Amino acid sequence: MSEQLRDQHADALYRALREGHTLAPLTERWPEISIEDAYHISRRIVEKRVAAGQAIVGKKIGVTSRAVQQMLGVHQPDFGFLTRDMWFANGDEISLSENRLIQPRAEGEIAFRLKRDLVGPGVTEQDVLEATESVMACFEIVDSRIHDWKIRIQDTVADNASCGVFVLGSEERDPRELDLPNLHMRVFKNGAPISEGLGSAVQGNPLTAVAWLANTLGAFGIPFKAGEIILSGSLVPLEPARAGDRFELTIDGLGSARVSFCA
Questions:
Q1: How far apart are CA 183 and CA 174, in angstroms?
Q2: Which of 7, 31, 159, 245 lies 20 to 30 Å (CA to CA) from residue 260?
Q3: Nearest Cα residue to 232 out of 254, 199, 255
Q4: Domain coordinates of the chain in residue numbers?
C-alpha cells in the first residue's frame, strides 16, 4: 500500500473517530492491506490525536483471550495506543455521545503501571515483572469505527486496536504479591453476574501478554515508557454497553472497578 493510500485511510478513520460514525471494513475496500500497512495507519491517527493536544499515556493489547477471538473472528492479538482523553476515573459515568462512542463493548482486564522503560525485542515475563510498579483492575470500553464490528486483524490494528476509553480501579497492588494467572475476575451488569474468568485467559499469564506487546512494538521501534499504563487484554467476553447500563468487576486480591453510561 502506498504512503498516500495509507494516509487516506488514516484520514477517513480519524474523521469517523471525531464524528462518531462507522466505515466499511478496510479489508473489503482494500483486500491486500497488510498488518504493517494497518500499523502505519494507526500511527498516523495517533499522531493526529497528539497534534490535537492528547498525550500518549500507555499501550494496549487486545484480542488475547479465546473467548474474545471467537466473538470477533480475529485469531491473533492486536495492539494500540492509549491517550489521555481515553482515561476515566473509577466509578465515572461516561457519556456515549460526548465521547463519540458508536458501538461500545465492555471488557474486564488487568492493567499494569510501569516504573521503568521496557524496550523489545527480547523482553521476558521476568523483565515485565521487574519493570512494573503496580497492577489494578480495569474496564476497557472498546469501540470500532468499522461497521457492525466486521473486522479482520488489519481492520482492528488500523483502528488503534478498537480503542474507546478505559477505567482503572482505585486499588493498586505489587504484582510480586499476586498469582496473576489464577486471579479470578467476576463481571456484573446492572447488578447481575454476566461473566467470569482467570488471569490465564490472556496468553496463559498477563505477564506473557505484556511481554508480547513490548516485543511486538519494539520491532517497530516503539518502547514502553516509565509511568505508562499497559492494558493486558480481556479475561472475559465483551459485553455491549448502552445508556443506563452499570458495570462492576471484582478481582480476588486486586479490588474492583466500576463504570456507568449515559446518553
A1: 13
A2: 159
A3: 199
A4: 3-262
Tell me the CATH number of domain 3-262, given options 3.30.450.40, 2.60.120.380, 3.90.850.10, 3.40.50.720. Answer: 3.90.850.10
Looking at residues 210-223, what average pLDDT do you find? 90
pLDDT-derived band at 1 (thresholds 50, 70, 90) equals confident
CA gap 182, 200 in Å, rounded: 6
Q: Look at strands 229-234 and 56-62 and give their pairing.
A: parallel
End-to-end CA distance of the chain: 39
Cell of 259: 463504570
* pTM beyond cutoff 0.85: yes
pLDDT digits (tens, 9 = 90+) for 58-77: 999 976 666 666 666 666 77
Please write the tens of the pLDDT for every residue from 104-141.
999 999 999 999 999 999 999 999 999 999 999 999 99
Q: Which of 39, 1, 27 is nearest to 155 (CA)?
A: 27
Nearest-CA neighbor of 161 among 81, 84, 74? 81
- Tens digit of each residue's pLDDT (9 = 90 or more) over 131-189: 999 999 999 999 999 999 998 889 999 999 999 999 999 999 999 999 999 999 999 99
Question: 168 forms bridges with which residues in the sheet?
Answer: 138
Concatenating the DSSP letter of every residue in 78-125 gives: EEEEEEGGGEE-TT-EEETTTTT-SS-EEEEEEEEEESS-B--SS--H
DSSP 24: -
Q: Where are the beta strands (DSSP E) in the chain?
A: 56-62, 78-83, 87-88, 93-95, 105-114, 132-142, 165-168, 184-189, 192-198, 229-234, 239-240, 246-251, 255-262
